[in-house]
Amino acid sequence: MIKKTGQSIHSTRRLINAEPVVSLGLLLATLVASIVVTPLILDDKNIISTLFACLIIISLILALRTLIRGSPNVRLCIEFVGIVAVVLRVAVGTIYAYPWMTFFTLTVGLLFNACMMVLLIKYLFVAVPQIEKLLAAINFYLLTGISFSQCYLFISLANPHAFNLVGQAINGWPDYLYFSFVTLTTLGYGDILPLSSLAQSLVSLEAIIGVLSPTIMIARFVGK
Question: How much is the pTM?
């Protein structure tokens, strides 16, 4: 009887310890889906793209619930920001979007990403299994590229001449998402050019982060 009870407790502990890995894996799958599918949706204001964006945000919220189970105030804050992001995305995608609404939607999205990045970066400095650290580091890297793409879109809305796509017009966030990861990975194809001073500064910052982030994370893993 005692042996069976011990085995049951041990199995429960293994299940509990596996929950962060599952949540980080769901977060990774959601981010990858967002990066891969978004460029295929050329119009970001149709019903399909709106539903997809809302599904991505909801999936992110669900993935984060387990990671912040011990911090109810943080969970409430992230869930609130996520719900606001969903409502704003629906409003922008289904009704006429005033300029201030688009700016506010991007601001809320950046705040949501910042909360996730702060939560993920802590995994590199706490005592958790290496698999959790690795998944958190990959998610942080992907979120960096997504966040910078939103910053580029924000700048382009304020200054339509901040970026230039050689030979054609920029179609919106999918193009900035592509440009962001080309910059983050230091590929530098040169088909999209930052023209304004602010855009050039952000591009330089992202390129620096793209070089330093993997270096710091690898050093952190090797040090452990």
Answer: 0.85
